[in-house]
Each structure stands twice: as C-alpha cells, then as structure tokens.
Specification:
Helices cover 63% and strands 4% of the residues. It is mainly alpha-helical. Strand 3 and strand 4 form a beta hairpin. Helix 5 crosses helix 6 and helix 5 packs antiparallel against helix 8. The N and C termini lie far apart (42 Å).
Length: 236
Amino acid sequence: MFRFPPLTPVVRIFLVIFLTAYVGLLITDNWLGLDLVRLLALSTSGGAWVGNVWQVLTYPLAQDLRPQGVMSFIVSALFFWLVVGPYEQSFGGKRTLQVLGFSLLGGSLPALGVGLFVPGVLFGFGTLILGPFVAWAWAMHTMKQTANFFGVMTMKPTTMILAVLAVSLLHFLASGSFMSLAGDLGAAGAGVLFTELLSRPPKGKKRERKASGGRRRGPALEVIPGGKDDPPKWLN
C-alpha cells in the first residue's frame, strides 16, 4: 500500500529553497522583468561563458515560469520528496547531501561539455532527483534484491533504471535538448558511481570482509523519480 514518507530534514530544507526560489523568480521575472532565470539556468546559448561559472550549481533553481510550469514544479517537488526522503531515512542526512552533490555535478558537467558543441540549456531539479534514485536502485541490483514500484508492483532495480532512462529519452525526443539528455545520463551515472564508491570497504578491512563472507544490506525504498519541466520560451 502506497504511503508518503516522512518529511525529513534535508528534504524539508531543499523544498523550502526550491519554493522560495520559484516564488522569487515568478515575481522578479514575470512582474519586474529582471530575467533572473537566464542567470541561473545552465545555458551555453550566446556564448555566456561568465555565467557558466555559477550556473553549474544554480541550474536546479531555474524553473519554467509560464502558467503550465506551476504543475510541473509541484510534480517535481512531490517526486523529490518521494525519492530523497526515503533515501535520507535509510542512509542519513550526510550521505543524502553527498549523493545530491554527485547528482548536481554529474548533471551539469556533462551537459556543459555537450553544450559547448550543441548550444542549449539545463534547468530545473528533475535531473537532481536521478542521482539518489539510481544510487539506491544500483545498490539493490548489487545485492540482488527487488524493488517495489509505489507499493503496487515488484520490479527489478535495473528495470526501474531503464524505465527512468526511457523517460529521459522521451523527454529528449520532445524537447530536442541534448544538454538535458546529457544531464540526465550524467546524473544517473553519478548515482552508480556514488554507490560503487560507498560499497568498497576500507583497504584494511578487505580481508576481514572476505573471511566473514558478509554481505551489505540496504534499504527498500518504494519510490520513482518525477517528470521534468518543459523548456521556457526564451530557450527556443
């Protein structure tokens, strides 16, 4: 049976940040005409090299400010809660911040590299969700466990990862944004890398681990990542 996870500290802080930034951008851009979204989104259009310095970190704060973007923001916030909340319950706030950092840079750096050849834009925190989700799913795959899809259906973790990547591919076919696709793939890869780094025992404990034959146990989250916003008008 599906149930919402507790609103954990890290999730609460990030949701407040995202909501504050969103409301602030609605006021400054739609009512004051300041166009701050352009300064926050990771964009390689028009040779904006100076902006790229901070945009590799600020792109999740940029949102679609059109009326239809309100529902996209709500859905993304909901899935951020559903994905990151259980991860924090299982691994703690420190690991959650770390995997979000991996996902942040894992999304922005490949997108920036692709954007140097195919100009475009990366924005929104849909990409940020992929890191913790894939990190968890890869841990389940490593331990040969199954995952539960919203408490409704049991799936292999690799199937869930492929389903998420398929959604990213559909989003690419709809938007034509190579930067968005590179960001999604990079964030997913960062999730795998993070799990692999955590699963390696300290060098001094390798023999002990082999002798005991123990296997690490992991969480059983019941979450899937959310959708992404459509590109803002200024991108086209």
